Amino acid sequence: IIIREPTSRTEKADGLIADVPNLTLTIRWADCQNFVIYAPEKNMGGLLHAGWCGLNAGAIPRFFEMLKNEWGIDPKDTYVGAGPSLCQRCAGFTDPVMELPNISTRFFDGKNVDLRGSADAMFDELGIPKEQRERHPDCPRCSPQTYWTYRGGDRDKVLAGHTNVLT
Description:
The protein is α+β, with helices and mostly antiparallel strands. The chain contains five helices and ten strands; from the N terminus they run βββββααβαββαβαβ. It has helices at 52-57, 59-71, 96-99, 115-126, 150-159, and strands at 2-3, 15-18, 27-29, 33-39, 44-50, 79-82, 108-109, 112-113, 133-135, 164-166. Strand 7 (108-109) and strand 8 (112-113) form a beta hairpin.
């Protein structure tokens, strides 16, 4: 969604885009991928929460479709920063083929899925140069002393609203 004024932070959206100066965006996450996306020529940016459901639903390409449709921003003209998210070892599923029908099976290793690799492939397909992307290497489940993690033992606290924040 497009944000142009302060809000109550109750929007039900995985992506926020602002084209207003001095408006701070925040997005909550636990284990899911989280991205800050900046278009320097238009001096605007956004945040995207893309967990396994969002990846499967096409949240990444849809975010960039909105940038293109609303502001004429090509993906190749953006910079993407990825915050901590589940590593492949910690992203286990019961039946990845059934749960993630829109994710290429090349990212499957048994019941584990390389969600980061899948997102990176989407950025590749969009034409965002690798040198315009950075990824924080941490995994919340591997570092529960640093992050709230749904899959790593904080399920009840995360469900109660304790999350990490990307600003």
